[in-house]
TrEMBL record:
PANTHER family: CARBOHYDRATE DIACID REGULATOR, DNA-BINDING TRANSCRIPTIONAL ACTIVATOR ADER. Residues 452-509 form the PucR C-terminal helix-turn-helix domain. The lineage of its organism: Bacteria, Bacillati, Actinomycetota, Actinomycetes, Kitasatosporales. This is Purine catabolism regulatory protein. Residues 8-126 form the Purine catabolism PurC-like domain. Transmembrane segments: none annotated. It comes from the Bacteria.
Length: 517
């Protein structure tokens, strides 16, 4: 336990007598220092027991003594030892009164007790405390190492860590999701620190933070990032009621080292899985489902026995998009690891392509995350057999194109065929095409009689029925026939061609939809 003033007072060889501040003897002594200065504060760090003989103090002036004690308390001195028998036969009354008033422990040091004896006692006690902390830290490190080697190493390690700290411990993955906690109830508390994890994630290299626990708790929480690269592999959080002492810090550092080693080893294995998954996905995209099955092994074979879906995501925001896509890839990977769902993914060339079973939790999580991220656009295919993955890829591509055109975060294949086709085509290129196609007719109408554009619209909307279209326009059908011949002459196209009629109708509708008529 830490060295306190009470420990020194109880030391029989020192013969110290308490004259003031008896109720504050439990203060921890971090060092001992001797000074005869009137203001030793600039030479102190706080936590010291100060020793003096009072040779340069105005001990007969109560106000001077009060000022002296104020300066000591401001310097966070934990106690004052006054040596008698050198400059003063007893501790001055003015100093005793000032110390009692300020609550500063004041100890009388007899002539037969040299200051060096107190210094040696404090130094020996501090060295013993440090040795005890180091020894306890090594013992705890061995316990944590044995726990880490157990079948469920991470859970066992967290349990031992929480028990040693008399608190709780939680492990987060790279996305900030709690993946393990001890005791079990700590998972809910740890999840409420997601904002703190997000702040640490943006710091390159190792990062740590000490924060207050979630509202409703009195925890002191310390968070450490895990991993050796620029981006953290995960995070460890520990919560305790008291500040961590030296021994506890040794234990936490040991846990960080063991978890980092475990994550790096897992990452090496995960990288191999990632490369295999990417190779299998490329085979499926190339229509080689048979070859994919032959190399899938037990790890992915089950995935290729059921309908699958394809999701394609890409940045829609040049600044935030790439980072959002990388975070999506991490969270998809983490969701697959938690759920145990087999998942194939390729993250390259500014795109993320994901293939998973149609009802996979990880795929649903990927879709939800993509839909919630404003910096991304994503398309999701229908469910298909593994042999039809190339078609699913085309479906996801088309859905992605619709998402980009409509300014949506996520579009599923089933939505592509729903509603009007016009919103899919009303981009700048289509508007330019419509304007160019109809410009000769509009120029004619602006300078001549005939109203060809309105006549063309009426004729097309009535499917080429002369009487109905003429009645709608309020003209004779022969007049309408003449106008349609003029349309053909001006455009140099035949209205008997269904493709021409389709293009003209879409041009008219596009201008009407965009208000460019």
């Amino acid at each position: 336990m830490p060295l306190t003033l009470a420990s020194l007072v109880q030391h029989s060889a020192l013969k110290l007598t308490v004259l003031a501040g008896k109720d504050r003897l439990d203060c921890e002594v971090r060092w001992v220092h001797t000074s005869e200065l009137d203001d030793p504060g600039p030479y102190l760090e706080g936590g010291e027991l100060l020793l003096t003989t009072g040779l340069k103090l105005e001990v007969g002036d109560p106000e001077a003594m009060r000022g002296y004690v104020r300066r000591l308390t401001a310097a966070k001195v934990v106690g004052l030892g006054f040596g008698v028998g050198v400059g003063h036969d007893s501790v001055p009354d003015a100093l005793v009164a000032a110390a009692e008033r300020a609550g500063l422990p004041l100890l009388e040091v007899p002539r037969r007790t040299p200051f060096i004896a107190i210094s040696k006692t404090v130094s020996a006690a501090l060295a013993a405390e440090r040795y005890k902390a180091v020894t306890a830290g090594f013992d705890a490190q061995r316990e944590l190492t044995r726990a880490a080697l157990a079948p469920d190493g991470t859970a066992a390690l967290l349990a031992r860590l929480a028990a040693h700290l008399d608190g709780w411990a939680a492990l987060y993955d790279a996305s900030g999701t709690v993946v393990a906690a001890a005791p079990e109830w700590a998972g809910r508390r740890a999840a409420r620190l997601a904002g703190e994890i997000d702040r640490l994630r943006d710091i390159q290299g190792h990062a740590g933070a000490a924060v207050a626990g979630p509202a409703g708790s009195e925890d002191r929480v310390e968070i450490q990032s895990l991993g050796t690269g620029r981006r953290p592999r995960g995070f460890l959080a520990v919560g305790t009621e008291e500040r961590l002492d030296t021994s506890a810090r040794y234990v936490v550092h040991a846990a960080v080292a063991l978890l980092t080693l475990s994550l790096e080893q897992s990452r090496t294995l995960q990288d191999a899985h990632t490369r295999l998954a990417a190779a299998l996905l490329r085979m499926l995209l190339a229509g080689e489902a048979g070859h994919a099955r032959s190399v899938a092994g037990a790890l992915y074979r089950g995935l290729l026995d059921h309908p699958v879906r394809v999701l394609i995501a890409e940045p829609s925001d040049a600044q935030r998009g790439p980072e959002a896509l990388a975070l999506l890839a991490e969270r998809v990977e983490a969701a697959a690891a938690r759920s145990g769902d087999p998942l194939l993914a390729i993250h390259e060339d500014g795109r993320l392509i994901v293939l998973a079973a149609q009802d996979a939790t990880a795929l649903a999580a990927a879709a939800d995350l993509a839909e919630a991220e404003d910096a991304l656009a994503a398309g999701l295919s229908a469910a298909v057999a593994p042999e039809e993955v190339p078609e699913a890829h085309r479906q996801a591509e088309r859905a992605l194109a619709v998402a980009v055109r409509r300014g949506r975060n996520l579009v599923e294949h089933g939505e592509v065929g729903a509603g009007s086709v016009l919103p899919l085509l009303a981009d700048d290129a289509v508007r330019a095409f419509a304007e160019g196609l109809l410009r000769p007719l509009r120029e004619h109408d602006a300078t001549s009689r005939g109203d060809l554009v309105a006549s063309l619209h009426a004729w097309l909307s009535h499917h080429g029925q002369w009487d109905a279209a003429a009645a709608d326009l309020g003209v004779h059908r022969h007049t309408l026939r003449y106008r349609m011949r003029r349309v053909e002459e001006i455009l140099g196209r035949s209205l008997d061609d269904p493709d021409v009629r389709m293009e003209l109708w879409l041009a008219l509708k596009t201008e009407a939809e965009t208000g460019s008529a």
